[in-house]
Amino acid sequence: MSNNSTQESGSNPSGELAVIRLVFQIAIAVLGVIGNVVVVVKIIRGRNIFSVMTPYILSLAFADLGILLINYPLAILKIHFPGEFFLGEAVCLYITPFAETFFGACIWSIVAIAAERYMQVAWQITVPHLRKRQSKRIVCILVLIWLVSFLVAGLPPYFHYIYHSVTRECYPDYTVKKFRIVTIVNAIFLFFLPLCTISLSYQRTSKLVGQRAFRLQDQTPNSSAEASREKIKKNTDAILIQTRKTKRLVIPLVILFAVTMLPYHSFTLLLAYADTSKIPLDFLYNYMTVVTVFVAINSAADPFVYCIINDEFRREIKTALSRCFQCRLGTWRRRVRSANLQITNGSAGITNKPFVQAHETYL
């Protein structure tokens, strides 16, 4: 979430509006962090909430946490304190460029879920086989996702970010040509290509499942092939059920991603190809604010999508919140009892001794 065209100055909203906006931005981040932390904790504890999708959901949760804890605060600082970077040279030159990696890991983790479902259908792998997955292959896919995301989105900024210690400015110093190339590559790799891949995967998956069901209906029943036919039907039904479950999860995530990330990529393309000197600074400032909020919503809303789609995860969230509330309530009650006890003990120890001593001098 970096650019070098809105670095110097922007609109300065009124104090009350700025505070309200900042509170809203912080609330989004807090809710998103809590939700994604719950996802990570539940998966690490071994709860098989999302079955075959679990490793990719875990990768997506880590990417969302990176966006909410690193990208989002950096963007908020840029909005509220344009032209001045308070976090130092190390954060500017090393953390800020790497943070772009989280965008790629986020969307390509969703792509991996869709591609995984297509491979299961295309290779005719049944549900029992899903439990015997090759963990090395999954790890390799996840490592590849993060590595390629870093090479494409995170590595190029490392060579262009500069930091001025006197003015405390931090920004990528691109030439116009390089900035346009980077913007186009990011738009393709982080937006258009993933969406096309997901659409193609589910189109092919639906076609394969439909063809398999159609062939099964056209088979002529006979005594020798009846057992085999029943086995094929059972496997086909299992694959169909798993495909529907995956679609129920991935489609809302994809729609959420497309709606919330479109303003971000349109904003970067605007900065790269438009003459920003002719665009009012108020417009650029407000546009950047909306873009930042939308990016945060994309990462913060993913756990709530899981709650809506997945009944088991919704129960896990309710249980976690209930335990947290009971723990907080118990702590509050203990503090109240301790305070009351101190007040009682203090009251019992109060005497009129200082008053008597003060008046004995006059006797």
Strand order, main sheet: write it out.
Answer: 1-2
Order of helices and strands: HHHHHHEEHHHHH
Low-confidence stretches: 5-11, 347-363
Overall pLDDT score: 78
Roughly what fraction of the amino acids lie in strands?
Answer: under 5%
Describe the structure.
The protein is an all-alpha fold. The protein contains eleven helices and two strands; from the N terminus they run H-H-H-H-H-H-E-E-H-H-H-H-H. It has a two-stranded antiparallel ribbon. Strand 1 and strand 2 form a beta hairpin. Helix 1 packs antiparallel against helix 2 and helix 3 crosses helix 6. The radius of gyration is 28 Å and the shape is globular.
List the defining traits of the structure above:
disordered C terminus, 2 strands, 363 residues, mainly alpha, 2% strand, 11 helices
Q: What's this, in brief?
A:
With 363 residues, the chain is mostly helical. It has eleven helices and two strands. The radius of gyration is 28 Å and the shape is globular.
Helix and strand topology:
Layout: H1 15-44, H2 54-80, H3 89-98, H4 101-122, H5 127-130, H6 135-158, E1 161-164, E2 169-172, H7 176-218, H8 226-273, H9 281-309, H10 311-348, H11 353-360
Antiparallel strand pairs: 1-2
Protein name: Galanin receptor type 2
Family: Belongs to the G-protein coupled receptor 1 family.
Domain G-protein coupled receptors family 1 profile: 35-306
